[in-house]
Design a protein that fits this description.
The protein is mostly helical. It has ten helices and no strands. It has helices at 14-22, 31-44, 49-62, 68-72, 76-82, 92-112, 115-121, 130-133, 135-143, 151-160. The longest helix is centred in the middle third of the chain and has 21 residues, at 92-112.
């Protein structure tokens, strides 16, 4: 059977291919999945997406499958135990940010009804340089309490949950799908 033509960025890695085919750009409504995607993008900053996908099971085990309520109530001792966990990215700031951002997300979900409904209130225009068009979104999300938010993180996050258009390469079977 002939292999489907895909974007070049995932190479021949099975996890990258599965993410490309089944998740990237597919609309997400589940608060916990949206939170997972945000945090994975935060963990990816400065690293490769392939590395993050290969640590995803470890992240899910460490952070209760990104159950917002469970992550938000993790103790300092539980977070500190993760500093030596080889199955995740052991960045203390990002580990602590995970709990903090879960607490912020829960507050905003209570206010807006869902994480997605909150995200829809953010004013951004998907035109031009992400560093520019995400400035108001970054400012608002930081004002709302989120940490470790930046233009490239948000650009990929919004693509990953289907809120920004994913521009597949012309030869890819997902192109303009």
């Amino acid at each position: 059977m002939k292999e489907k033509p895909r974007c070049n960025w995932m190479g021949d890695d099975a996890l990258m291919i599965a993410y490309h085919d089944d998740e990237y750009g597919v609309p997400v409504n589940d608060d916990n999945v949206i939170f997972e995607r945000l945090m994975l993008e935060i963990y990816q900053a400065g690293l490769t997406w392939k590395l993050i996908l290969h640590r995803r099971v470890g992240f899910n085990n460490a952070f209760h499958n990104y159950n917002l309520k469970k992550v938000a109530t993790m103790t300092d001792k539980q977070l500190e135990a993760l500093y030596d966990n080889p199955d995740i990215i052991r960045n203390k700031l990002k580990i602590n940010t995970t709990r903090h951002n879960a607490q912020v997300a829960l507050t905003l979900i209570a206010e807006h009804g869902s994480f997605l409904d909150y995200l829809r209130t953010l004013n951004y225009q998907q035109k031009g340089d992400p560093k520019e068009f995400f400035k108001p979104t970054i400012k608002q999300m930081k004002k709302d309490g989120f940490k470790f938010i930046g233009p490239l993180i948000l650009e990929e996050f919004f693509k990953s949950i289907g809120m920004n258009e994913v521009l597949h390469q012309k030869h890819c079977f997902m192109y303009k799908k």
